[in-house]
């Protein structure tokens, strides 16, 4: 059985690994010169079931509307003429009710917990190294009102089996001494002891090596221009080298999945949401945090990877534009300086912007399509690193004819 995986990001490479473990002959195709060079390259690095809340919440429409007139919002809407964006936004707004928010968050946290267990098993089995820290994550709140709201919201995660602790400012600093300078600006924190952090790019590179040991072939610098089908089966995909044929195909192209799928008549509810990151070197005189986490009031995340400290922020609805300027990172760097003034060499930033492939619900699309040999593994959004091993395992169970280990409601093509 020849399996062709379209996409060499974390979703594609994890799918390739599990397929190869099934004994498939696997080929991965990607337009980049290596794995994980787009969405997975410089993301937040948090493996965070403790942050599984859906973005489509009752508060989201007001924030998006405000972003049209006020700079510095964590969610930003930039108007353009793309009809696909407007269709996606309409579906997103439909999910911004309290009932749907709870339902979607429940599905996300269950998937994230399952996926983390698969990640841990894979990491141990293959002895992967990716600057992993497994000491929990902190979710900080700057004022009493937001802390109370966060404490109330965490009940949905706890009800689904996640362990969370509420900490006052002093307790948060005891957990992470590098926050001592920010003591007066903290109301409290929620601590998830089972959350982790690690470099998704390093992980994917290490997993690629494991895939190659299993016989997986990687075709890089191979942009896919077309999917060719006959009846209800895909025949192959067109690249500069010609038609790549296979017995089964996995669409794992992230934000570009709906673009290619339109050729076959699919309207995948996936749209890019732009995020920004800045990574700084850490020297012997710096005092970086050990634990990763999120400043919930500013939606700025941070994580340490060995001698690097990374901050990520912003969800910008602006289409497929990945351009950025130093001004885009101003608010993020201000938060970095407030929380960890001596955390890293802030004068030597490495800036990056990438696209998160989001569905309106926040849950990915996994499994079968109308074409009998075409499968989906896409739409992971801001939780792709957390979800990747779980969605790949669920996908391969479906492809192998097994019952998935998790309820797939809300995660399949309708």
Number of helices: 11
Radius of gyration: 21 Å
CATH topology, what is it called? D-Amino Acid Oxidase, Chain A, domain 2
Q: Please state the average pLDDT score.
A: 95
Which percent band covers the strand fraction?
15-25%
Shape: globular
CATH architecture: 2-Layer Sandwich
Number of strands: 20
Q: What's the CATH C level?
A: Alpha Beta
Q: Tell me roughly what share of residues is in helical segments.
A: 25-40%
- The total number of structural domains is 1
Q: Which stretches of 5+ consecutive residues score pLDDT under 50?
A: none
Kindly report how far apart the N and C termini lie. 27 Å
Q: What is the CATH superfamily?
A: D-Amino Acid Oxidase, subunit A, domain 2
Largest sheet: 9 strands, mixed
Family: Belongs to the DadA oxidoreductase family.
Pfam families: DAO
Keywords: Oxidoreductase
Domain FAD dependent oxidoreductase: 4-397
Structure, briefly:
One of its GO terms (molecular function) is oxidoreductase activity. This is D-amino acid dehydrogenase 1. It contains eleven helices and 20 strands.
């Amino acid at each position: 059985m020849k399996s062709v995986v379209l996409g060499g990001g974390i979703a594609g490479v994890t799918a390739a690994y599990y397929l190869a473990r099934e004994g498939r002959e696997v080929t991965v195709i990607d337009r980049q010169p290596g794995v994980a060079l787009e969405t997975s390259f410089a993301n937040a690095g948090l493996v965070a079931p403790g942050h599984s809340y859906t973005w489509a919440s009752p508060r989201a429409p007001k924030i998006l509307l405000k972003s049209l007139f006020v700079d510095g919002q964590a969610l930003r809407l930039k108007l353009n003429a793309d009809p696909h964006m407007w269709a996606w936004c309409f579906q997103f707004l439909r999910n911004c009710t309290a009932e749907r928010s709870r339902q979607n968050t429940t599905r996300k946290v269950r998937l994230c917990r399952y996926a983390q267990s698969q990640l841990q098993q894979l990491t141990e089995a293959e002895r992967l190294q990716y600057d992993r820290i497994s000491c929990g994550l902190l979710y900080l709140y700057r004022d009493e009102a937001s802390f109370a709201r966060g404490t109330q919201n965490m009940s949905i995660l706890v009800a689904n089996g996640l362990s969370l602790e509420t900490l006052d400012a002093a307790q948060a600093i005891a957990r992470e001494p590098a926050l001592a300078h920010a003591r007066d600006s903290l109301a409290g924190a929620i601590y998830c002891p089972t959350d982790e952090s690690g470099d998704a790019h390093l992980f994917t590179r290490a997993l690629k090596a494991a895939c190659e040991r299993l016989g997986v072939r990687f075709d890089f610098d191979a942009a896919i221009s077309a999917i060719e089908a006959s009846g209800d089966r895909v025949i192959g995909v067109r690249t500069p080298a010609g038609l790549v044929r296979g017995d089964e195909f996995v669409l794992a192209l992230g934000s570009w999945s709906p673009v290619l799928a339109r050729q076959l008549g699919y309207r995948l509810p996936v749209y890019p949401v732009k995020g920004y990151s800045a990574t700084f070197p850490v020297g012997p005189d710096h005092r970086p945090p050990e634990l990763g986490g999120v400043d919930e009031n500013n939606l700025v995340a941070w994580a340490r990877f060995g001698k690097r400290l990374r901050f990520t922020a912003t969800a910008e609805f602006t289409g497929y534009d990945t351009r950025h300027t130093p001004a885009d990172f101003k608010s993020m760097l201000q938060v970095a300086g407030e929380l960890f003034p001596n955390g890293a060499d802030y004068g030597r930033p490495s800036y990056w912007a990438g696209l998160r492939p989001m569905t309106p619900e926040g849950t990915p699309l996994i499994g079968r399509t109308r074409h009998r040999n075409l499968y989906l593994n896409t739409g992971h959004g801001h939780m792709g690193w957390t979800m990747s091993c779980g969605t790949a395992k669920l996908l391969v169970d479906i492809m192998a004819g097994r019952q998935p280990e998790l309820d797939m409601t809300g995660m399949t093509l309708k």
